[in-house]
Write a structure and sequence with these properties.
It contains 10 helices and 4 strands. It is mainly alpha-helical and about 220 residues long.
Amino acid sequence: MLTQQQAEVMLTLQANMNAKVNPDWVKAAYPYLRAVVVEGAEAMEHHGWKWWKKQHCDLGQLQMELVDIWHFTLSHILLLTGGDEQQALELLMQQLEQDQQIKFDNKTINIKELDLISKLELKIALAAVRRVSVPLFAALLEDCQMSWKDLYCQYVGKNVLNFFRQDHGYKEGTYDKHWLGREDNEHLVEVMTEIDSEHPEFQHVLYQSLKDRYEGR
């Protein structure tokens, strides 16, 4: 289950990232759920949906798409509260308590009765009409062999790496993703195994560990 502390950390990180892209992001009111539509379709491609040809599920890529979907879902929830992180946290935790039934297109749909592709289709459909269902997302996580803790770690890791790159010249073109013989995302994965994800300052410790490695290269 997603803990309140994990939700609070991710909402803060997402708000900070949105502000880094555009300090006036709340007023801009980007259609974040439109991005969920696209990411959901990409997730279907990684899973494979074509009945007329043999396909293989790329579970790793599918999980990454879910992390991306979560980024945009958090952004939408933050927009619903005008960027107020505390209200967004309350709304998110309330969403977690919703049941496994979704009313859509004059039908009541039981999430548990859907296969993974059908869940992705429903996720896309809801996003297209600007709706969010956290229980549906939780069901997708389970289908993709991810726990909320897995999502939290991957989300925080990607967010921290994005900030690290920006702070070290990524936009200016002066940052080199390859250092000490490996790509920065490989360093990220290794560092994450050395840090307790339950640490209250997990993201800050993660960032500092990357910085120490980068500056010591």
